[in-house]
Design goal:
Helix content: 40-55%
Order of helices and strands: EEHEEHHEEE
Distance between the termini: 39 Å
Strand order of the largest sheet: 3-2-1-4-5
Number of helices: 3
Shape: elongated
């Protein structure tokens, strides 16, 4: 289970909107001054992200929570988003190349390019419809795992000599 800490900003029936702070490894890396990732990150200063998550623990607005997402669901969704368009492009290009050879007009490359673009766009429509269907399934939805306890401010009492008690 992938977990992230966030704050509930809105409650909608059995769902909550949770804002998380974006974490970056660039701050602790020794090569951050010469790294391209660090430079690109500086161009996009978005530090928070908002998620909708199922609220099975009845978190309230303002609560600090841990949200989670199943790793298998993330892997399947990633394969759908990245692999399907690539396969659509390749399958379209191959089909266009075959069709161009069958027609034998000497424009085999043009058929391949156009069919590849068509296969890519067609696969994007398939990905969109599949992602809509998957987002309604419980396993593919982020959920609030637990509510974190409120942080109590630490109060120290100093005696007359400046020594901390407590």
């Amino acid at each position: 289970m992938l977990e992230e800490e966030g704050t509930v900003v809105r409650v909608h029936a059995d769902m909550v909107e949770v804002v998380t702070r974006k974490k970056s490894a660039c701050g602790s890396c020794a090569a951050k001054n010469g790294c391209g990732t660090s430079l690109v990150e500086g161009l996009f200063p978005q530090r928070t992200r908002s998620f909708r998550a199922s609220n099975e623990v009845l978190a309230k607005e303002g609560d600090r929570v841990i949200i989670g997402l199943d790793e298998n669901a993330l892997q399947i969704a990633s394969m759908l988003v990245y692999l399907a368009p690539l396969l659509g492009l390749i399958a379209g290009a191959m089909a266009g190349s075959w069709l161009g050879a069958q027609i034998s007009t000497g424009q085999q490359e043009l058929f391949s390019i156009l069919a590849g673009i068509g296969g890519f766009w067609g696969s994007l429509f398939v990905v969109r419809s599949c992602s809509d269907a998957l987002s309604r399934k419980h396993a593919y939805q982020a959920r609030v795992l637990r509510v974190l306890p409120e942080e109590k401010p630490v109060v120290t009492v100093m005696d007359l000599h400046g020594v901390s008690k407590g």
